[in-house]
Amino acid sequence: MSKVRRRPVPGVTLLVVLLLVGIIARSNLIATAACVLLILKFFNLGFLFPLLERRGLEVGLLFLLLSILVPVATGKVPEKELLNNLTSLPGLLALLGGALATHLNGEGLKLLQLQPEIIFGLVIGSIFGIVFLGGVPVGPLMAAGVTALFMEVIRLLKH
């Protein structure tokens, strides 16, 4: 009787590792994302992957913006206060910070599209930041943006 060798399903090992790392690091978002992707793989729902890849970021950003704008919608932050804040030093710095952050996020998205394998390092680095530096997990896109900035600085220094 010959032994039947089964090929491992691509990506499952890394997703299980990410699930475990997310659990150990108490990062519910990482653990949940890995778990959802594992469920999709095991139930042969891989046809959803291209949709998640194309639109997942937009849906996530939509919910992030919704949660941030709730105080405006409920009237907890008056419109007059918002307008006055834009002309203050913190408001102007917030405009600059927002512009820089979105630029870095765009560069991070390009990096992730060109080198998707870098995601594992970004996730592990984010977990390191959460556990040892008291950071807040805002997502791999910003981490990719900072990484893209580091890579650009190194590229410029080499020339």
UniProtKB/TrEMBL annotation:
Which cell locations does it reside in? Cell membrane
Is the keyword Transmembrane helix in the record?
yes
Report the sequence similarity comment from the record.
Belongs to the UPF0756 family.
Tell me what topology the record assigns in the membrane: Multi-pass membrane protein
Q: Please list the coiled coil stretches.
A: none
Source organism: Desulfotomaculum copahuensis
Q: What is its main location?
A: membrane
What name does UniProt use for this protein? UPF0756 membrane protein A6M21_02600
Q: Does the keyword Cell membrane apply?
A: yes
Cellular component terms per the entry's GO annotation? plasma membrane
Q: Pfam families, from UniProt?
A: DUF441
Per UniProt, the keywords (alphabetical) are:
Cell membrane, Membrane, Transmembrane, Transmembrane helix
- What parts of the sequence cross the membrane? 7-25, 31-52, 59-77, 89-106, 118-135
